[in-house]
Structures are given as C-alpha cells and as structure tokens.
Amino acid sequence: MADIAVLGLFVADIVGRPIDALPPRGTLGLIERIELHIGGNGANTCAALGKLGISCAAMGKVGADSFGEFLVNAVSRDGADIRGVVRDPASTTSATIVTVHSDAERTFLHVAGANATYTPDEVIWEATDGASIFYVAGLQLMLAMEGENIATVLQEAKRRGMTTVLDTVMNPRSIGWNGLAPAMPFLDWAIPSFEEAAQHTGERTPQAQAEKMKAAGAKNVAIKDGAAGCHIFPATGAAFHVPSFDVAAIDALGAGDCWAAGFLTGLLHNWPLEKTGLFANAVGACSVTSLGATTGVKSLAQTLEMLESSPVVS
Fold first, then answer.
1. What pLDDT, on the 0 to 100 scale, is given for residue 312?
2. Which residues of the chain have pLDDT under 50?
3. What is the CATH number of domain 4-22+31-313?
C-alpha cells in the first residue's frame, strides 16, 4: 500500500541542452546533450517521492506505445505502484520536446496525448488503498478532468479519508479558472506556482491569489515562487514566506514537481509548516542542479542535512 496517491500527467521528455535559438530553417545545429527522461507532473512527483523514500501510487493514462512503456517502467523502478496507470491502445502517450536554455530556463513543444482524454471513469480507486494523501498534478493538461469532473474525483478522495492536494500547470487550451474553481471546495491544499496562479486567478500578488482560491473554498494555499522560495497561507494563523536555497541552476525542468514532492513529504510526516516549506524548497533546489526533472533529488536524510548546513537567499 502507498502513503501518497499521485494522479497526474505522464509525459516522455526529450530534453536538449543548451538551446538558445533554433538553427536556420533546413540546416543542422549541434548541441551538447539530448536525453530521454520521464516527465509530466505525476511521473516527476512519483519519481521524486521514491528518492525521498516515500511510497506512492501512480495514477494516470498513457498509450500502448514505446513512450508509455518507458514511463511506466521508469516510475515502477523508482518504487511507485503502477496499478493505477491506464494503458490505452487508442491513445498516444504524451510527449514534450524540451529546449533548455543556457540560463536553465526551458521552452516546451508538447503533445497532450493520453493525458487529455483521462476521465473520472478511468480512475482506479483500488490503487489508493492505504494512502493518506491524494495529490492531483497538472489538471490543466488533463482536459477531460477540468471543471465538475475534478470536483467529483476530489470529493471521492475526501470520502475515502484522504487529504487532498492539487497543483496546476499552464495550457493555452485550458478553460482556466472555470476549470479550476469547482475543485476548490474539496481541496485541503492548493499549491500552484506564482506564474500559474497569476494565469488562473488573474491576480498579480501571492496574497491576492491565495485569497481568491480560499474564497472559492480551498482550506490552505502554498504558492511556489522559484528562486524567491514559497509563500504559505494556512487556514489558521498568519501567512509567511519561506526563503529559497542558493544553488547553481543547470536545468529547472521539473523543479516545481520536486518541490511538490517535498511539500507532500512534510504533510505526510505532520511537520510544522515552516519546516515543510523549507524542506520543499530544498528538494526543488536540489532538482535544478542536474539535467532532467528528478536527477538531482537526494535522499530524505541528505535533504534534511541540507536544511541545517546550506545558506538560503531571501
């Protein structure tokens, strides 16, 4: 049985670095590295949780193709229970071409694939047996889950006694706030990034973003803010900021998913929110020090040591 159930995106990432511009049309350009990695909020979070020693159940949808097989096998090797992953021969597995720039920023070309057709009827609830946390990762690229459908899924997770957590992602084809708001009354935690929260809520400060999500029904809100750390708005008590760690960034791909894995770890262990936020920042900081979404994530013990020994930036 798993401690955390992760329902989210499964994406094959083809990562190239460094790519600051494409070569002229019809010509060849040379770069240093091209690699195939697991990607998508769901797969990344499962992999990061595995490295932190947390058992998780992977839930989502892939195609019956080589990318799908690669993703399922990779997540399984990282320790996830894969019974909840649907393999649909009528769908193609989602994939992304990721161009990593010299400053570690990323640009994406994405095929939505099976993620976009995943529906509540396909959720394998038996995979959540024993889990105390139910985490939804990347709602806006699971187009068939937006709106009342995600509310239905979260309501069932609450009925089964799980703490509910949801992260967002950007997608120009998403229905935005209208697809997200129905989830809010069934959320214990909303944990978007600042940029995603701005896009979905229309608000330009973490405080205003959190207030809008809380007004819609979310109990608690945590907003990831990259190198600025994170902002936590608990149901009771004052909001506070948690500073980030000063590391040399190589690749920011998946940093938010690794942060989420750290935050879920803190919730699972019932740590104080200050420690939970700092630990999440540490996991996210480790992730950006290596190429690939989760390559740089360290063990639970190593990450806890980082909390004591590494300086943070305000």
1. 86
2. none
3. 3.40.1190.20
